[in-house]
Amino acid sequence: MDADSRTTMMATAPAIVAALVLSLPVLYRLLFAGAGGKPTRKPLPPGSFGLPVVGQTLGLLRALRADTAEEWLRRRAAAHGPVSRLSLFRRPTAFLVGPSANRFLFSSPALTTMNSEAFGRKVSRRTLRDVAGDEHARVRAMMMRFLKLDAVKRHVAGMDAEVRRHLDTHWRGRATVAVMPSMKSLTFDVMCAVLFRLGTDATAAAVRQELSTEFQQLARGIWAVPVNLPFSTFSRCLAASRRGRRAVAGLAGGLPDEEITDNIIFLMIAAHDTTAALITFLLRQLDANKDAYAKVLQEQVEIARSKAPGEALTWDDLSRMRYTWAAAMETLRLIPTSFSILRKAVDDVEHGGYLIPKGWNDTAAAIPPFSFVPFGGGARVCPGNEFARVETLVAVHHIVTRFRWRLAASCDGSFSRYPMPYPSQGLLIDIEPIDDANH
Ligand code: HEM
Question: Record-annotated residues binding heme (predicted)?
Fold first, then answer.
């Protein structure tokens, strides 16, 4: 991708932010300690908590929607430096920027993961995200049975079949496709097929449909302002989560314990929207950069020509898709799916010469070592990164070898963040099947 966009991204993409909950008396003590109370250690980060209750939440949400959040964060960093304080979602938050902040965020034992209020309150409370230390290692080991390299290698043929089925059903015969909704539905189907072994017969299709509907609603509300009024996005999210739990319990063949249900729901959310966004934005970047598109196409056509008609992709084929994966990584650098990473301080901790008190939260936004961290880092590094790589490569292979495509004239390629990036009109592309494709 071109040098200009790379430079811009390096300059604008912040590296980390932190936010945490602190009770007012504790805050008062921290702010005024030293005036006769206990001696202060490091000072609190510069900045302010903004207006009561809302703090800086609405400003950040507005910037996310307008895709100006990087500028918003850059202005903060310029005004207050790489460590500052603010208030987000009613919580005292330390906002940290830069590679050293990323390293701190991924390795400090004083920080733990945290979820949005919707997650914490109702969606799923007993997940991998809510446990630490040995307990985290135990739950993570359970998940890795399905996500480790050997398991993912076995998923390649299943993913290949789902991608073909999806493109035959939803792309063939159409002149225009909205990529993001299509990829969300594809990644959801891939997950149901290879992780949960849901088939394609009528009963399984109905379960998939029900799960998909509830998860769309649920995903929309995860970062909504937590106002539990009738018809608010947040309350719809909670209702969808109740129905989703029942469907997941059915999927697990009865009523599994709450921990299993919660982790399945969490995995479903973690696994499909992120990869759908990566595939979608990769297409957007390729459309804007015809040289890169031509190189991806050449790499994929060579692989397609080495195969018999209808033959599924294999693990070896994927290892030949180096340029395509480099383009995907560049896409994640330019448009990271995780805009920031949140942590909560479980103990008073210092970073960059400032105190981050126990109870505050940390958020990190991705960019040099510890600069480019699209899959996180440390003990919490994304366990689904291989799964996402294979799924992305298989999908891109079939899309570029089976269709000529370009951004529709009515689509400007702009996007908003919720905080996951979502393109306007879902990224409309005009498509035309390539009949001589090897499929
Ligand atoms: C392009 C696709 C993806 C991206 C960019 C991505 C990114 C991330 C990031 C940045 C984290 C760390 C968050 C933190 O430290 O707070 C994470 C965690 C996680 N991801 Fe992914 N992810 C992707 C796909 C997947 C897939 C396909 C799966 C499962 C099949 C998955 C499952 C998970 C899980 C379970 C965690 C929590 C790990 C833990 O807390 O120990 N992700 N992901």
Answer: 382
Find where tokens 């031509």 sit. 294
Using one digit for the tens of pLDDT, what is the confidence trace for 381-410? 999 999 999 999 999 999 999 999 999 999
Residue 152 in tokens: 């993912």
CA 130 to mean position of chain CA atoms: 18
Distance 269 CA to ligand 1 centre (A): 10
* Other CB atoms within 10 A of residue 357 CB: 21
CB 283 within 8 A of CB 179: yes
pLDDT tens digit string along 341-355?
788 888 888 888 888
**Other CB atoms within 10 A of residue 100 CB:** 16
* CA-angle at 392, arms to 333 and 427, nearest 5°: 70
| Tens digits of residue pLDDT in 225-265 | 666 666 677 777 777 777 777 777 766 555 457 777 788 88
Taking the centre of ligand 1 as the mean of its atom positions, its distance from the CA of residue 368, in whole angstroms, is: 20
| Domains of the chain (ranges, CATH numbers) | 1-113+339-373 (3.30.43.20)
Ligand 1 pocket test, candidate residues 382, 389, 391, 394, most atoms within 8 A of CB: 382
Supply the pTM of this predicted model. 0.86
